[in-house]
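Problem: given the chain below (204 residues), write out its structure.
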Amino acid sequence: MQDAFIGSWTQQSHVAPEHLHSMRGLNRRFLDLAAHGLFTPGLEAQVAPLSPAQRAAAANCPYALFDLRFEDACYWNSRLELLGFGTFAIADEPRNCEDTVDFARLALFYTWHLASSAALTAHLLFGLRSDTVEAFRRVPVDALPALAYSEAANITARWSSCSTYWTALIGAAARPDSAALRRVQLSGFQLAAAAQLPSEPREV
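Solution.
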């Protein structure tokens, strides 16, 4: 069943099956950690009651369910520039739960891998803008562990301010209705597209 979903998502999202499998695994790990009270406050109460199979179903999205401020191009460009100059070290960063750091390490390595080899996929899965992709490409792989320590505290649920999406996703995953779950998962594309729109100019 999961492989059938992967094939269907591939046709609609233009992402290769191997990347969707990896994304599903990262999403599943994120939800498992969220169920233990890590990351976004309040998400634990929603995710914890789900069975392992239900979490796996919720995780089967053709995009990341977690966020590391990936759509904030200014933030990442400045952070990656500092990393390139070696201006911060692991010891300078706040302490984080080791499970959180491990997840950040995996997520950032995969982000770096996609930025280096499949820029469009990095955009589709994580919402990375083109200049952020280029900045990730310039980062040497051996610098990623320090980056994981510094950024672990920034991991949140993607679209964490959109409680309607998360309530619908968790609710659909808890029911044996794959069609309803698929509709909710498709709605994530709308949220991802909206995040890429320029902000409305403020009146002076």
